[in-house]
Design brief:
4 domains; about 10% strand; about 675 residues; globular; Substrate Binding Domain Of Dnak, Chain:A, Domain 2; 6-stranded parallel sheet
């Protein structure tokens, strides 16, 4: 049977057929075995916050209309959504807490962690912002103080978070007006969960506002802290060339997959894989070297800083193990399937867990303590090298599919790529939007879900948007989906973009889809919005900009948290499939309509990717009209872009593309912003 209904990726389709031959069960098999899904739960109408239930509200009015305590459908749906937001905010923000702790320890006297300040320029800028003395002090001591102050933000009881002060003044005024200015992450999550407890908050709208406050504490707090601390420790990303898809696995090398979210571990594993004694051991066992590749957001972390190839996104984690070429997969936290040891048992592959927060029965264990990071990383790499000797070459099956990409754009380096050393800034982009060459900018982020053919929605939406002259910025699994499809190459502008966007991309040498990091790095998108507002010309607030966001294949609780802090920050956000709110007209009306009057942003919930695309384009056009911007120079969108692409028989990359190493196939290269 064809696997097209499960994934849009031919490499995934090949491995799914191989899984059937091996008798291995994957996430798609488990999802199909659960059909039909609980209709009450899918609408958000099942409440289990106390032990009088669980209580289910009948959406058709033929049975119970309130739970045992008297909670109606609107309160139950709001409670369930709020609890999901709390869990999502906790996941990303706890990531930030861990990295802040490592930053503090790296700067303390006598540190044995092996971590050090890799980005003194970013450290100096943050020290000034956070009120930490910097002049004449060693970078290590500044880092220790910064890490400590960042850590203190998590328990902040009163007053706004320091990173949240970056938001435009008008946006902060809106937060103050409805009482959602975020305090410490821990306080907001605890208060939100308290409100959802039996017998506390009974107003669904008040509960939704509390959920927005917790989401903002993540987006403008925990996640933003994580991104900043990682850039100090591991270096600010730069435009870098690499490859993606299962074809990056190498038959004659030791293959190690890193999977999870925290680069504190993966960066050390990359470093350990370059140790000469471990490479010598690999050669002694018949390997030609050690290949590190990533899955999910850890993949994005080591891609954008180290140029390591990407094996795939969330729904690729089992498929990668089924190739028989992976010698070891090491995981930390988030988006890691408990099924991995069972799938790995089809071959010789080891699965190793490392976080004290995440244990998987059947996996091996290496406790990862940042104070002894290099030692733990070396042990993990050594286990992978030893496993290579047990690999059966006859059972290896690697799909011959991989794609070139350019990644590593950030809010800090993008101005250099847009304007160069003498004109660094967002002015070229702002001018292109104002003149009608670029319709607007859309952040497309998020996960995969077996409810939707893998990546089909990501690809359909992004291709539609860039054909309509929309510049797309991406993070997380969505970015990996487009990388595998070739949309992160500068040449993709000529193949898929509308005429106006194509002109801009060709002029400055960037792809039409910009990879800006892992899912925690959605804070970079917020920072880009802040910088555009600060530069001036197309809006005084985030909510006035011709921008939007989308999560086309949402899966995790983190996704709704991200979507909610985008909406609270003034951003129109399409969310597919919809969260479990269909059981409440009050909740849907607030999130899709009323909230716009309070924050400037709102959700579009739909199961139709074409409706999402139309809604986003219409929103961008409405913002352009409100700002009195010039009409779009090229009309016809998809048709015009397709005709333009067909008319190009030859292609000579401009200087900008050559600087990114994308004109011809070559080794990974970096394009560094000019030194000041």
């Amino acid at each position: 049977m064809s696997q097209d209904h499960r994934s849009a990726d031919p490499a995934a389709q090949e491995m799914l057929a191989h899984a059937r031959d091996l008798g291995a069960k994957t996430v798609w098999d488990r999802h199909e075995a659960l059909q039909p899904l609980c209709g009450f739960g899918d609408l958000g109408l099942c409440c289990d916050v106390c032990y009088m239930g669980p209580c289910r509200i009948d959406p058709f009015g033929e049975r119970a209309q309130v739970g045992a305590c008297g909670a109606d459908a609107h309160l139950i749906v709001a409670r369930n959504l709020a609890r999901a937001v709390a869990a999502g905010a906790a996941a990303h923000s706890d990531h930030g807490r861990e990295v802040a702790g490592v930053l503090r320890e790296a700067g303390e006297d006598g540190s044995t962690s092996g971590y050090a300040v890799a980005n003194p320029r970013k450290l100096a800028a943050l020290a000034e912002e956070w009120g930490i003395a910097g002049r004449g002090r060693p970078p290590a001591r500044i880092a220790a103080d910064l890490g400590a102050k960042m850590g203190a933000q998590f328990g902040l009881q009163e007053g706004p978070l320091i990173p949240a002060l970056r938001a435009p003044e008008e946006q902060r005024r809106k937060w103050d007006k409805i009482g959602i200015t975020p305090r410490g992450i821990d306080r907001e999550i605890v208060e939100l969960l308290h409100r959802t407890h039996h017998g506390v908050e009974s107003d669904p709208v008040a509960l939704l506002r509390a959920a927005m406050r917790a989401a903002l504490a993540d987006g403008w707090g925990g996640s933003m802290i994580a991104t900043d601390a990682q850039d100090v420790l591991f270096g600010g990303p730069l435009a870098i060339r690499s490859q993606a898809n299962l074809g990056v696995l190498e038959e004659k090398k030791v293959n190690i997959l890193v999977h999870g979210h925290e680069p504190v571990l993966s960066e050390m594993i990359v470093a350990a894989s370059r140790d000469e004694d471990l490479l010598a051991r690999a050669r002694q066992l018949g390997a030609e070297g050690i290949n590190i590749a990533g899955i999910c957001c850890t993949a994005n972390e080591i891609l954008m800083r180290q140029g390591m190839p990407v094996a795939g996104n969330y729904l690729h984690q089992e498929l990668a193990l089924l190739t028989g070429a992976v010698d070891l997969m090491v995981v930390d936290v988030q988006c890691v399937m408990p099924s991995l040891p069972q799938v790995a048992a089809c071959h010789h592959t080891k699965v190793v867990t490392t976080s004290h927060k995440a244990h998987i029965p059947g996996a091996e264990r290496v406790d990862f303590d940042p104070r002894h990071a290099k030692q733990a990383a070396r042990e993990i790499v050594a286990r992978a090298v030893d496993a290579f000797a047990r690999r059966d070459p006859a059972r290896v099956r690697i799909p011959r599919r991989k794609m070139d990409l350019v990644a590593g754009f950030t809010n800090e380096n993008l101005p250099y790529y847009l304007g160069g050393r003498l004109r660094a800034g967002y002015r070229p982009l702002i001018d292109a939007v104002a003149a009608g060459r670029v319709r607007g900018v859309v952040g497309v982020v998020g996960c995969n879900t077996p409810k939707i053919a893998q990546e089909s929605y990501h690809l359909a939406l992004v291709r539609r948007l860039i054909a309509e002259d929309v510049l797309v910025v991406q993070t997380g699994c969505s970015a990996i989906a487009c990388a595998k499809a070739g949309l992160l190459r500068p040449e993709a502008a000529l193949e898929h973009a509308g005429p106006g966007l194509r002109e801009v991309c060709a002029a400055v040498g960037i792809p039409p889809v910009l990879h800006v990091g892992s899912c925690v790095d959605n804070s970079r998108i917020l920072s880009i919005c802040v910088a555009v507002v600060a530069e001036g010309g197309i809006g005084r607030d985030i909510s006035e900009l011709p921008i939007a966001a989308a999560a086309p294949e949402a899966m995790s609780e983190k996704a709704i948290t991200i979507g909610l802090y985008a909406v609270a920050s003034g951003i129109f956000t399409a969310f597919l499939p919809p969260p479990r709110v269909a059981g409440s007209s009050v909740v849907r009306k607030y999130l899709e309509e009323d909230v716009e009057r309070e924050t400037g942003g709102r959700f579009l919930f739909t199961n139709d990717i074409e409706e999402a695309a139309r809604g986003i384009v219409a929103h961008l056009d409405s913002k352009r009209k409100a700002l009195n911007l010039a009409p779009m120079l090229y009309q016809g969108g998809v048709r015009a872009a397709s005709a333009a692409a067909r008319s190009l028989n030859t292609y000579i990359p401009p200087a900008g593309l050559a600087s990114l190493g994308c004109g011809k196939a070559q080794e990974r290269t970096q394009a560094r912003p000019p030194e000041e």
